[in-house]
Design a protein that fits this description.
This protein has 4 helices and 7 strands; from the N terminus they run E-H-E-H-E-E-E-E-E-H-H. By secondary structure, it is an alpha+beta fold. It is globular.
């Protein structure tokens, strides 16, 4: 059973914002001649890394709801210019939308067991994707999604 991470997506108001940011960063890396990959930098190194990259994902909390995830491909530790240990969580750039699941704010990341993770949006929820993001947020706040 895969182990996942969950993290706040600070600075994004919607999944669309996250997708635009990912596309921008990938284009920027391509223009700079850098490897075209997407990663998130974090200070804490997951101790259960082997479980995470064995089918795990990073679930993003956007506006107090888990709304999407990205598959974890690799965890790369490194030391930054100031001598601080950090790691890159290398992610598949494809964003997979999930059922919305309310979450309170927290710092850093947390482990998320597979049974506790929200399900991916299936074809049965295709109407949900056609709703404007603001309406989805309001319905989620009311507990209707």
């Amino acid at each position: 059973m895969a182990l996942n991470l969950i993290k706040l997506c600070v600075g994004c108001d919607s999944v669309e914002d996250l997708e635009e940011w990912i596309a921008f960063r990938l284009d920027e890396r391509r223009r700079n001649g850098e490897p075209v990959e997407q990663y998130h930098t974090t200070r804490m190194m997951p101790t259960r890394g082997a479980e995470l990259i064995d089918g795990g994902s990073l679930y993003w909390v956007i506006k107090s709801n888990v709304q999407c995830r990205q598959r974890l491909l690799e965890i790369r530790p490194f030391v930054d210019e100031e001598g601080i240990s950090r790691c890159h969580l290398v992610l598949d750039p494809a964003v997979i939308r999930t059922d919305w699941q309310p979450r309170r704010a927290f710092q850093g990341w947390r482990y998320l067991k597979a049974p506790d993770a929200p399900a991916d949006l299936g074809s049965g929820n295709s109407g949900l994707m056609e709703m404007p993001p603001k309406l989805r947020r309001e319905l989620a706040a009311l507990g209707l999604l």
